[in-house]
Amino acid sequence: MAHFSMIKWIMIIFFIWSISAQQCDQPVETARFDCHPEPFASSEKCLARYCCWKPIFSSTNHSTNSLEVNVPSCYYPRDFPTYKIITNESTVFGQRLTIVKQQSTYMPNEILNLTVDLLYETAQRFRLRIYDSTKKRFEVPLPVPVVGTKSNVTDYEVSLNQAPFAILVKRKSTGVTLFDSSTSPLIYADQFIKFSSYLSSPFLYGLGEHRQPLLINVTNEWRKLTFWTRDEYPVQNVNLYGVHPFHINVEMKSNTLINFHGHFFLNSNAMDVDLQPLPAISYTTIGGIIDLYLFTGPTAQDVIQQYWDVIGKPAMPPYWSLGFHLCRWGYNNIDNLRTVIQRMHDAQFPYDVQWTDIDAMRSNLDFTYDPTNFNGLPDLVRSLQSEGKHYVNIIDPGISPTQPPGTYPPYDEGLKRAIFMTKFNSTELIIGQVSPGLTVFPDFTNASTVEWWTNIAAAFHDIIPFDGIWNDKNEPLNGVDGSIDGCTNNSLDKPPFVPNVLDNSLSAKTLCPSAQHASSSHYNLHSMYGYFEAKATNLALKAIRHKRPFVLSRSTFPGSGQYAAHWTGDNRATFEDMYFSIPAILSFNMFGIPNVGVDVCGFFHDTTEELCTRWMQLGAFYPFMRNHNAAGDKDQDPAAFSWTSQQIMKQALLMRYSLSPFWYTLHYQATTLSKTLVQPLHFEFPNDNKTLGIDQQFLIGRAILVSPNLVSQTTTVHAYIPQDVWYEFSSGVKVKVIGVFTDLDAPLEKINVHVRGGFIIPMQIPGSNLMIGRGNPFTLLVAQSASENATGNLFWDDGDTIDSIEAKAYNYLEFSLVLNTLTIDTIVANYKDSPMRLELVRVLGVSKVVTSVTVNGKDHKDFFYNVFDQILIIYGLDMDMLVQPSQTIEWTTTTIN
C-alpha cells in the first residue's frame, strides 16, 4: 500500500509539474480563483485536486500590501475540467442548453449533466438558471414573476462559449461586461456549487446583512462575505441576522461612472461570496440551484426598481408607525413603565408607540403577560390607545413545551395541529432552548401554522389589544447548538463543505440543518425562517385587527419588506455603532425593506448624554425610529436626561413629526413606484465622483440631505454638499459653498439638514402624537431651483385601511412652482374624513422683493418677505386643499435697487 501511495504521489507531482508552466502561471495574482476554500489548505490537498499550488510569500514578515492578504495559494489551472455545451435550442423564453462534464473533480456527488435556461424576461432583466437535468433539486419558495415569452428588445446581448462552457452578457449600448463566467470553472456538486464572473468595476453596493461601510471597494483587497442567518451582535466580518445576496455594481470607464447594474442570486442555502481585485465575484453555495438575475439599470434606482419587481414591493405601513417608538428590555414592572410614560408626558415629548420586551411576559412565555410584576398592563395599553398612542409587544418563535398540560394553549394547540418542526426522518419534535427554557419551533411553511398563529395571537389580543408584533430571535436563535440531543452525522448536519459561518458550524446557535419543515429541510430553509414568520404574523394581524399591520422582524430575506419592517439588532452604545447605522439603513432600502432603523442610543451598555443626544438627532431621520436598550443599563428615554439635552432631542423629534406627510408620501411611492425612502448621495449624483461611497450623510427621497455629527467631542462636520441649490432646513438660508467638502458648524444642539432646490416638501404642524396631529394644518416648504421652480406631492389617507391604495380611498395632490405661481392640483380626492387645510407656505430663494400676494386670484395681506435671507412666508391661508381641483398662490416681485 505504501508503494502504491508513493507511485500515486509521484504521478500527481509529475502531473502538476507538467502543467504548471502552461496552466498555472497567472499574469496577475488577482486572477487566481480559490480551489481550496476550506481552511488549512496545503500543497498535498491542493495537488490532490489537480490544482495549482503557489503560496504568496511577502517580502516582509508583516506585509502591509493588502493585495497579498487572502490570495489563494491553491487555485484552478486554466484547463481544469469543466462543462461543454452539447445541445442549444431556442425556446419561447430564450434558450435552453445541455452542458456536460466528462469527469468528476474534487467534490462528492458532482452532477455531470446540467440544463441551462437563458431567460430574456424583460428588456432590462435577464435570468440564468442552471439545474440538474435528471433530478429535481430544492428551489427557493419565493414567488417570483413567471415570464413565458422572450423579450425581443433588450438592453443586453448574450453570447456563449461551447468548450469550455461560458456565458457572456454585455450591455449593448456600451459593450460593458455585466456577467462573464469564463473567469473560473463551474463546479456543480450536490452540496457544493461554485461559479464566478468578472465585475465591471471593483465598486459594489449591497450584499447584506453585514456590518460594513456602504461601498464595498475591492480595488486593493480580497473579501469574503458569508450568508446564513445568525443571531450575533452586529460586528464586522461575520454573518448576521439576514440574507440578501443582491448587489449593485458600478460601471466605470476611464475612472468615470457611466451606469449601474445588479445581480441577485436567488438561493437560500448557506453560501460564501468572494470578491477579488481582478475585479471578480465568486458565489459558493451548498445547495439548491443556480438562479441568477441580472438587472441592467442603467441608474441605481432603476436597478432597485427591477429587483423589487422580482422580490415584491414593500408594504405601506400604518401612519402611526412613522412616529417615535420607545422600548426597553428591563422595565421590570408596571410601575417603572408608568414612570417612563409619565415623564415623557410631563416633558412634552411627542411619541406614538410604547413597546415591551420579554420581561413583561410571564416566565418569558409567548402570548402572556406577567400578572404580578405587570398587573394592570391591559388597562395601561387601553389608556394609551385612548390618547392616540399604540402598543407593540415582542413574540419570539420558540414555544415552551414544559408547561402543565392544558395550561398553555400555544403549545397544546400547536401539538394537536402538528405544526412544530421535527427531527430528521422522524415525527419527534426537535427541542432547543431559548428565553423560556426548553422550546419547540413552529414551522411557518406548514399551511396549518398561519391559522394556529392567528388563533393564539387573537386570544392574546382579547386580553391585551396590541397594535403590532415584534418578531425577535427568528434566525431562529437556539441557546444550544442544534438541539438538546445534538444533531445527526448525515450530510445535512455535516456537509462536505461549510461556508465561512461564525463558529464554523451550520447548527451553531440555531437548529440542526437536518430538522424538518413541511416543505423541506432546515438546511434549505434556515435563512428564510424570519421571512415566513413575518408573513404569517402579517396575515394574523390583518385577520385580528382588520387594519394595516405593523410587524418588526430581526431576520429577513428578499421579499420580507412586503410583510415587515426591520431593525439592525443588538447594537451597542458607541459612536462607531451610530456611524454603521447609516450604511445599514441605506443598504436595506436597496434590499426592499425601506422601513428600517436601529436601536437609537444603542442597545447594549450605558449610553452617554452626548451620544444619545446626537443619536436622537440622527434617528429622527431614520425611516423607523425606536429608542431601545437592554436590561441592567441605565434609562435612555429622552426624558431621562438633562433639561438642555431634552430640548435638543425634542427639537429633533418635532422636525421628524413636522415632516411626517413627506415621509408618508415617500412610503406611498415605495409601495407603488419602487422608490427608496433614503438613498446614498452617489445614487442621486452618479457623475460626481466625490459622492462615491459617501456613507456619513444620506438623502431622504431626493430632497433632504442629512449630515449628522458622528464624532464625540467635536463641533464641526466634514460634509459634502453636491453641486445644486441647497438651503439650510431650519433657517432657510441658501448655501454658498457647493461641490466641495466643507466643515459645517455642528455644536451639540444642531444637526445639519439641508433641503434641495427644486422640491416642495409637504409638512404638518406637529401634535403630541401622529393621530392627534392628523387634523392639524399643513404647511409647504418650497425650495426654489436655480431657475426658480419646484415640484412636490402629497399622499394622504386614513393611515390604517389595508387596501386604501387599491380602492383609491385616498387623496393625492401635486404641487408645482413656475414663474412665482404655486399651483396645488388635487388629482385624487376620495378621503374626506380628515381636514386638509393649508396654513402656511415658506418659499426659499426668492431673489426679488415681494410686493403682493394673491390666493386664487384674491389679494392676501398676510405675508412677510425677508430681504436678507430671501425667504417669503405666506401665512394665515386657511385653505381647504380639497375644495377644488386646482388652486393657486401667486406673488409679484420687484427688483432690489
Automatic annotation (TrEMBL):
Give the signal peptide as a residue range, or say none if absent. Answer: 1-21
**Chief localization class?**
membrane
Localisation: Endomembrane system
The GO terms describing molecular function are: alpha-1,4-glucosidase activity; carbohydrate binding
Give GO BP annotations, semicolon-separated.
carbohydrate metabolic process
Tell me where on the tree of life, at the top rank, the source sits. Eukaryota
GO CC terms in record: endomembrane system
Q: What keywords appear on the UniProt entry?
A: Disulfide bond, Glycosidase, Hydrolase, Membrane, Signal
Indicate the segments forming the P-type domain, all copies: 22-78
Xref: Pfam families: Gal_mutarotas_2, Glyco_hydro_31_2nd, Glyco_hydro_31_3rd, Trefoil
Q: Which CDD domains match?
A: GH31_MGAM_SI_GAA (cd06602), GH31_N (cd14752), Trefoil (cd00111)
Q: Which PANTHER family match?
A: ALPHA-GLUCOSIDASE, GLYCOSIDE HYDROLASE FAMILY 31 N-TERMINAL DOMAIN-CONTAINING PROTEIN
Similarity comment text for this entry = Belongs to the glycosyl hydrolase 31 family.
Official protein name in the record? P-type domain-containing protein
Provide the taxonomic classification.
Eukaryota, Metazoa, Spiralia, Gnathifera, Rotifera
